[in-house]
Specification:
It contains seven helices and no strands. By secondary structure, the chain is mainly α. It has two domains: 46 residues; 97 residues, no CATH class. The radius of gyration is 24 Å and the shape is elongated.
Length: 162
């Protein structure tokens, strides 16, 4: 049996598993064919489960980045008067870049931050903070958490990077 390795990379895992079943089911010895079929089935099941677990972990890590963006932007919004609009706009830009880093297009990231800003504006419970020390402390803490979430996401999705 010849396997074209290059073609395997161009196919989804399910197609490779189906190909594997098809090729090994054609054995002349039915017992050997059945054993190979069962082996192929279990191998594909394990591989598929591993891929599903990886996707679940990636989505979890992306969710932590999104949470960090939301909290960071909310605090920046509350502290806009104390820290100034330049700092607020810098946090807004950073939020958009963080969302792009986890797969959002620049347009989608900007729309997401716009929606978040409108939501925060509509929340009457969120008042403005005037204490600059508290604002700096809260923003520093939250941004550190956001950067940690980003690093975890990058480390998981690009393990070959040091």
């Amino acid at each position: 049996m010849n396997i074209n390795i290059r073609a395997c990379f161009d196919q989804p895992m399910e197609a490779i598993c189906i190909d594997y079943f098809r090729n090994f089911c054609m054995c002349s010895d039915m017992t050997m064919g059945l054993k190979l079929l069962l082996t192929a089935f279990f191998a594909c099941t394990i591989i598929t489960q591993a891929l599903a677990n990886d996707e679940h972990k990636r989505l979890q890590l992306a969710g932590k980045v999104i949470d960090g963006v939301n909290v960071s932007f909310m605090i920046a919004y509350q502290c806009r008067d104390a820290l100034g609009t330049t700092y607020y706009n810098a946090i807004r830009t950073y939020a958009e870049k963080a969302l792009q880093q986890i797969g959002a297009s620049p347009e989608k990231a900007a729309q997401q931050v716009d929606r978040l800003e409108k939501f925060i504006e509509s929340e009457k419970k969120l008042g403005r903070k005037e204490d600059i020390e508290t604002c700096v402390w809260n923003i520093s803490t939250v941004n550190h958490d956001l950067q940690t979430a980003q690093k975890n996401y990058i480390d998981f999705t690009h393990p070959e990077n040091p």
